[in-house]
């Protein structure tokens, strides 16, 4: 019992969701030879990898104090211009979307990746799909027009196809720095809300952010018409990942985007 309390105290001091004593006692019994430090790290890792809505996972007092207050989840909240969180709330990410890029643009990018291609503007660069050096050297890239050919030749002179791929990566990084993301967030009681990136947060990004990742929304966060306004000063990223959710989200993303733009789901 004392060990469980010590683990709870340590997790609370690092803003990690606090598990129930029942859950902790089971962990302590299963790892009876582990040191306190090892138990704390194991508890932290497992909690961040769990679905927060799992029954009896979290301490009841923590659960009550760290979920969305009813005044911001009620239907009437969508008519309120501004209201602030009156408590810290721990949430997990269920979905993320980059609002700075059209859905059709994202569909085209994912389809090109499926074909082993990467795009920059109107130029298409086919990535090597074989380990045979001769085949790689003889494989011609797909080109849009003569200007694309000239651009690719210039890039090859500067550093080969690898240089072109790196240029694509740099362009995507630039776009990511200027992106705005919308997230679906869920608290430990299962209530869902939208979160909108008001100011850029580097760790919030499609391809980087994981489904099931945990965030701590801090007291005073602005809620505008039922939408949480996220920025570095009012939101702490705790980490974590629910493997099954992330795998399903990643594998189904292209189909969801196609459906959203009215394209046929193949």
Automatic annotation (TrEMBL):
Pfam families with a match to the protein in the record: RMI1_N_C, RMI1_N_N
Cellular component, GO annotation: nuclear body; RecQ family helicase-topoisomerase III complex
UniProt cross-references to InterPro entries, sorted A to Z: RMI1_N, RMI1_N_C_sf, RMI1_OB
Residues annotated as transmembrane: none
Domain RecQ mediated genome instability protein 1 OB-fold, residue spans: 78-253
Region listing for Disordered, in residue ranges: 119-150
One GO process term, biological-process aspect: resolution of meiotic recombination intermediates
Residue intervals of the RMI1 N-terminal domain: 13-54
Family classification: Belongs to the RMI1 family.
UniProt-listed PANTHER family: RECQ-MEDIATED GENOME INSTABILITY PROTEIN 1, RECQ-MEDIATED GENOME INSTABILITY PROTEIN 1 RMI1
Record protein name field: RecQ-mediated genome instability protein 1
């Amino acid at each position: 019992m004392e060990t469980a309390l010590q683990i709870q105290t340590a997790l609370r001091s690092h803003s990690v969701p606090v598990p129930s004593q029942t859950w902790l006692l089971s962990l302590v019994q299963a790892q009876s030879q582990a040191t306190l430090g090892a138990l704390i790290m194991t508890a932290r890792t497992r909690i961040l990898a769990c679905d927060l809505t799992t029954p009896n996972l979290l301490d009841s007092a923590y659960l009550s104090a760290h979920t969305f207050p009813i005044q911001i989840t009620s239907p009437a909240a969508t008519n309120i211009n501004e209201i602030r969180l009156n408590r810290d709330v721990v949430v997990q990410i269920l979905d993320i979307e980059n609002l700075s890029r059209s859905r059709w643009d994202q569909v085209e990018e994912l389809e090109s990746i499926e074909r082993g291609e990467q795009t920059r503007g109107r130029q298409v660069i086919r990535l090597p799909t074989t380990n045979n050096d001769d085949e790689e050297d003889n494989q011609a890239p797909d080109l849009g027009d003569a200007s694309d050919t000239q651009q690719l030749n210039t890039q090859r002179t500067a550093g080969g196809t690898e240089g072109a791929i790196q240029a694509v990566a740099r362009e995507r990084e630039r776009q990511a720095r200027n992106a705005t993301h919308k997230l679906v967030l869920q608290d430990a009681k299962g209530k869902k809300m939208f979160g909108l990136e008001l100011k850029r947060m580097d760790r919030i990004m499609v391809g980087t952010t994981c489904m099931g990742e945990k965030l701590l929304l801090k007291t005073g966060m602005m809620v505008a018409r039922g939408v949480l306004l996220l920025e570095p000063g009012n939101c702490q990223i705790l980490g974590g990942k629910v493997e099954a959710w992330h795998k399903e989200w990643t594998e189904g993303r292209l189909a969801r985007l196609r459906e959203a733009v009215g394209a046929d789901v193949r």
